[in-house]
Predict the structure of Carbohydrate Esterase Family 1.
Amino acid sequence: MLLRSFLAIGSLLSLEASASVTIRKTGRGPTGYEVDFCYVNATAQRVLIGGGIQPFTDQFHTTGTSYRFNGRYDPHDYQPGDFYVSNPSPQLPAEPLYRWPYEMKSSDDGVWTYTTPLPSGIYSFAYLVNCNYAPNCSIDTGHLVIDPDLPPFQNVQGDQVASSFQVPFDDKFQASPELNTNFDYALDAPEGHRGVVKPANYTSPGSIHPAPDIHDFSIYLPAEYGTIPEKRYPLLYLSHGAGGNGADWENLGRMSHVMDNLIRLKHIPPTVVVTPSFYNLDASGGKFIYGNRSHSVPIPPAPYVRENFEKYLFPWVEQNYEVCQNASCRAFAGLSMGGVLTYEMFVNATDMFDYFGMFSPATNTPYIDASSAVQNPGLLKKGIMVAYGLYDFVFPQARELQTALDAVGIRYINRVTPFGSHYWNTWQDELWWFGVKVLWKPLPFGVGTGRVRAKG
């Protein structure tokens, strides 16, 4: 069974290049599927597949700190229950004996190929040409090449540097009594159930991207949108994290597919999703720290982003789309630094939203306390999810946030993704369960909230 085959011939950047990715159902182990990569480059000396795709591990050989040195498996050695966690480098200096599994082989005519079994999941990737480490491989010089016929979804050219594809689940070869790694909720929904995703720009004085006083976002409109006159739809704002932008959720997380299936299976009513960008809202920038990592990137502080969104983004969306305009059918969620922004919205824009999803929240003290709830009793009446991966480097921060919420008496739904690190398979999982267990569910939350068995 051939699921998807891509072939492009032409010029990519300064290179004569063509490429294809083919996903085949094999009916044999280790996963039931194989993926064929083909890339043509007659001048390349070495080509790796990197830029997002990872080796595998299992729950017995990773702690979130020792994974790099203890349990990175070639996908050809896959066993049911294996999963991948985030790791940026094909070759680390501290691991001279480790060999990156995704290395292509070439023929005399410059055709580079690689075939591998892969289990269920969404995989982002790029071709690393004569370059071993994706962050050092520039797209401008041709050392990092995006598949020319799998172009990423992006609002602004150059904002995304990886293509992506999805492999289905085969329970004959991938089912595990130890761990469920079925990501089929992000496959294409049947015809008639597919919404659309499109880029959009709004006026934002002081913004510098993609143009002066203009800022960008992406918007998902469910399949039903526009078919019922004057109907207004629930609205979810879904934020990216550090180093990302508003196209990440669609390009790397297949957000529209997740939403299509949540709606199709009646976990939620048809819902509009806005994925905004919080970078380049002005020319400010600086160094910030989250988790145990330091970054120097142009990121405005969360209060500034909140104020900008309240003043410009939120009114623009409400004026231009048929969306709900009261808190009961508005939600805000985000991953990593977007989780920090979600916490900022929860504390300081409490009355705008009734639902909040903090995915891998990179929050830090000080947190709210009992006096905060006295001054803002609305904090106690919201639908909240706090979610993070078992191997997530923000695990301690997320637990500290939960401790603060517990001390105030705020009820929330918790999700610890059992295979999760600080990466997209974690955030896809958390978006799915946010829809199943939290979004638009009756308030206030009680001990029975989220106990209804999931469909599908």
User: Anything to note?
Assistant: The CA atoms of residues 42 and 110 lie 4 Å apart. Confidence is low (pLDDT under 50) at residues 1-16, 285-297.
